[in-house]
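Researcher: Hi, I'm a grad student and pretty new to this. My advisor asked me to get structures for two proteins we've been looking at. I'm not sure of the right format, so I'll just paste the first sequence and hope you can take it from there.
Model: That works fine. Here's the first sequence with its structure tokens right after it:
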Amino acid sequence: MQPTHSESETIETFKPTRAGGFRRAVLRGLGVVLPPLLTIAVLIWAWSTIESYVLGPIESSIRSAIVKGVSHSKTFSQVPKGATATGARRLDGFSYKGERYVPDPTGRRFLPEYVVKVVNENADRFGPYTAAPASANAFWHRYVEVVYMPRSIVVPVFLIVFLTILYFVGRLFTFGLGHWFVRSFDAAILRIPIVNKVYGSVKQVTDFAFSEREIEFNRVVAIEYPRQGIWSRGFVTGNSMKEISLATGEPMLSVLMPTSPMPMTGFTVTVKRSEAIDLDLTIDEAIQFVVSCGVVVPPQQRYDVPVVLRSASVIKPNSITQERK
């Protein structure tokens, strides 16, 4: 039995609807999953960068200093005088001052047996893919890391010291001579070709993200700009100049118009207070709207186009035609 014309139209109508529903569901799923995943990825990247370029070198330097101090008098390349041989062979080790010494994997140096024992017992702490120590110095580094510098102590101490240094650096370079030094350093870097492009862009982003706003925004408004019928949102920074208000006979506002997707750049316009519409938006919500190029709309500002408006847009031309007749 062949489907009728109306039935075939119904089948064809449902196909794109199901496909569109599946696509919308996938996009909504991505919208839910991507923000936390990207946030976690950025935090992991930031920590990995700090660990690789700050924590790692500092930890390695401190560990090397401790190893030199601890292993200096307890590592031998030859059997010392007064030592008692453990076996007939040299590689059997010896006892010296009440401690037993064993050869390292190379067989050329001797170190205390307890060092090798501690490292072997904690081999799982370094991961399954970490190679075993191949020398006496490597054993001492592992031993110091296990006994003196475990990660459970190193990381908290590093974070406390790092935040303390950031605090004092921030206090030092905010006012007076420190502020002048930072400005001079920025000016010098910005004179270097190629480097100034990268440094300038990075500094704009970091200043916007981490610095306190020097401009105090009062509220978010919408104005018709750059022409009537086109609405742009901006931040009110205060009342404008007195001469402009006297010339127009009406209070004027200074409005900062941020540009997408980098809200740290923009321009300032002066508009009449009566021509500015206050928006139910916080500063952070407005910034998110700008950064997302209008994609992220706060919940209180979302709406569906009413059916009345759609029908009016369709009926209006017909009504005009009838009036002309």
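Researcher: Oh nice, that was easy. Here's the second one.
Model: And its structure:
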Amino acid sequence: MEKRPRSFYVLTVIFALFVLFLYGPTITIGILSFQGPEGGLTFPMRGVSLNWFHELFQQQAVGDIWGAFRRSFMLGLLVMVTTVVVSVMAGLAFRKKFPGSGILFYLTIASLVIPSILISLGVGLIFNQFGLKVHWATSGFGSQLTWTLPFGLLIMFAVFNRFDKSFEEAARDQGASAWQTVRFVVLPIIAPSLIGVALFGFTLSYDEFARTLLTAGSYNTLPLEIFGMTTNVTTPVVYALGTLTTAFSLLIIGAFLIAAWVMARRRARLGSDAGKGV
């Protein structure tokens, strides 16, 4: 058996420390959320129980946490759908050069480097200037799109740069219209990438704090509600909320990954059936 060099073990330790640094806080919160009724916010733990998860469902103890969850979930869905639709349309449009396309691209990407709190402040000021109500479903929705759309566009640009146009040409040779070509050829091929864009859109919106801080209006989203809890809740109930929120995020990511896997299997099976038919 070949002996591994010393550098392998050094890099392994460095990688393990990196993973611990990355997930250590989440694991710590998860452990502390299972403290007993007398437990505090730090170690050592005082018993083990589900008490703080029970307390989490007591409305008077933690405020409008479930209302905040519903708002974040609905906002995440709205941002996800909009990000997917606009990203696909922009990706199709940018396949052909048009006047100002370069400027438009860099203006879109520029929102990634502008401090998020300034975006939130700017959107809130614009709504106030025009006499519009600052609300999580309007101004909050718009400010979050400045965060999710650039990621969606970058993914779609990468996808269409590798897209084989011969598939579309073959469809048009068979008499397919432009819409039929997009619907039955382009979209099924890029479907796994669309799932990736949707995942980006939902998770980035669901967890966004800074761009929602000054644009949510009178009703908090979940990140804002959690931040508020850190200032007035001094029990592990906030850890229980963090654990449930993390579990929900992982559930969403798992659902998207399963959907992508199912679609990939379906495409492979259809391709195999088509090959046998030929």
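Researcher: Is there anything I should tell my advisor about the second?
Model: You could mention this: The mean pLDDT is 86.
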